Amino acid sequence: MSDAAKSSDEFALITGGARRIGRAIVQALHRRGLRVIIHCRSSVDEANTLARELNDRRPGSAFVTVADLEHRDGPDQLARSVMAITPELALLVNNASRFHPTPVGETEYDDWRALMGSNARGPFFLTQALAPSLAGGAIVNLLDIHGRRPMRRHTVYGMAKAALEMMTLSLARELAPDIRVNGVAPGAILWPEGEADPDTAAKNQAAILERVPMGRTGTPEDIAGAVAWLGLDAPYVTGQVLAVDGGRSLYG
Known about the structure:
The protein is α/β, with parallel strands linked by helices. It has helices at residues 20-31, 44-57, 74-85, 109-130, 155-174, 198-209, 220-232, and strands at residues 11-14, 35-40, 62-66, 91-94, 138-142, 180-186, 241-244.
């Protein structure tokens, strides 16, 4: 579907849309002519700032919703907020995610709840709640190459992303032909925030890039472009996972 074919009356919901990769996705979809609903959990100031910037460019084109997808009622709360803005969605992007290590022997229930809640349970129940409004539209889930290839000290995160990938494939069958469901699996795009030891972080980053044929990190815009293509420009593509990882997955 071409840029011109996108209507300014069509809406996209992007979870975790205030910062980092989510912000780039919001901006890319807005440039394509969609009205964007920016979900956040705690980054309310950043979400509001982004919405103001987008509304300055095109009035009435950006909205902010706040919900905790890890909470039992969070997905339904978010769905109700979205339905108060629009009864129909062209695109749902399940991007919100928590990421932190869970070493065996040190992992607590709260780690499990946060990682599974944000990366698997939340997206499933949000998708279930919004599916009636997505007829003729698409869903793109933000996966991870480590949903297939384990990363040391991150077992629960890898399990959660593996669950989200299976959800992507299963719902592509379950929701067809009315709704297309695909996934984007980023590789090294942005490094984790708040790492305590800069020297150790630099060594870890260098080791990762040694296994990236492109020899560099990608950009949030690389991921946003893949999301826009799967969500808007690929009407005969469903049930697919597109790795945007600079070739990292070639190493197995």
